[in-house]
Write a structure and sequence with these properties.
Distance between the termini: 10 Å
Shape: flat
Order of helices and strands: HHHHHHHHEEHEHHEEE
Structural class: alpha+beta
Largest sheet: 4 strands, antiparallel
Number of helices: 11
Helix content: 40-55%
């Protein structure tokens, strides 16, 4: 893979960070809308889950159609289970607690001068420092999301304190760092083009060749489609469920009315199969969700090597 990483520039990071945040917000809105639509079609839920991972190595956003997003609370799930325990670590917070009367490190009293005056450049430095750590964590995929979230946010607290010299941390800071790293990783697979900020003329992206382009050609194209539906016994499936996991995502075995498994196959632009995965989906009410605890997505990462 061609490596075109440019020397660190605070000015570039300040501009790029604000652009990245705007792009990330638009992507989140689009994915949320899409997840609402596909939720009524089990085969499309399975396909979307696999396709999101394959196109940019993005196991993080793939969870938007999984049980972690039950009742459309993926962001709240991450906050309550992984962010608030860090932010309110001295206040005795436990997942699900009301944070209204708790003082955490998101309080402005913890802001040092660098936090108060940062124009995005130092935040960009933190994001850059966290990138290699993120890549190492996600190298084998996102199936073990608990390890990734826990390790990443603990490390982020350390790195941010080194850069800013204070203990200030918010969920916005945490989301921005993680989602920026997820986005950057995706670009190492897809490649990038030269881009310039339309207002300042500052170059915010440099042309690079992605790993997918190296393996499959500059005009590569991956298409994910459902190859087959596989039988699963609902009774056997329920008997094997982890009650602790169900409680974590806010449901019970009795709430699951159907279960299906789909083999999703991925083909390149020449119609050659490059990888596949069996995706387990369940129906709760009228919506279908991927049961990520019963799905192995390891084959959707690293297939291009």
């Amino acid at each position: 893979m061609e490596n075109n990483k440019k020397p660190f520039s605070l000015k570039v990071y300040a501009v790029a960070l604000f652009v990245a945040i705007a792009v990330l917000l638009s992507v989140i809105v689009a994915l949320t809308f899409k997840s609402k639509y596909v939720a009524f079609h089990p085969d499309e839920v399975a396909r979307t889950y696999a396709d999101t991972i394959v196109q940019t190595g993005d196991g993080y956003n793939a969870y938007k159609v999984s049980l972690l997003s039950l009742n459309e609370k993926y962001g709240d799930f991450i906050r309550q289970q992984y962010m608030y325990p860090v932010i309110y670590r001295e206040a005795g917070y436990k997942p699900g607690d009301d944070t209204k009367d708790l003082k955490g490190y998101n309080d402005e009293s913890y802001m040092g001068e660098k936090s108060k005056n940062d124009n995005g450049a130092l935040q960009g430095q933190v994001i850059d420092t966290m990138y290699d750590y993120y890549v190492a964590l996600a190298a084998s995929g996102w199936d073990d999301y608990d390890r990734i979230f826990t390790s990443y946010f603990d490390k982020l607290v350390e790195v941010r304190k080194e850069v800013f010299g204070d203990d200030y941390i918010t969920d916005e800071i945490m989301f921005t760092a993680l989602e920026s790293n997820v986005s950057t990783y995706g670009k190492t697979l897809t490649g990038t083009v030269d881009e310039f900020d339309e207002n300042t003329g500052e170059q915010i992206s440099f042309k690079s060749t992605g790993a997918y382009q190296t393996a499959y050609g500059e005009d590569y194209k991956f298409t994910a489609s459902v190859k087959s539906e596989n039988d699963i016994s609902l009774d056997s499936y329920k008997a094997a469920l982890d009650s602790g996991y169900l409680e974590l995502v806010g449901t019970t075995a009795d709430s699951i009315e159907e279960v299906k498994s789909y083999t999703v196959e991925v083909k390149d632009q020449n119609n050659n199969a490059v990888t596949s995965a069996d995706i387990v989906v369940v129906r709760i009410g009228s919506s279908w969700y991927v049961d990520n605890s019963a799905t192995d997505t390891s084959s959707l990462y690293g297939f291009y090597k």
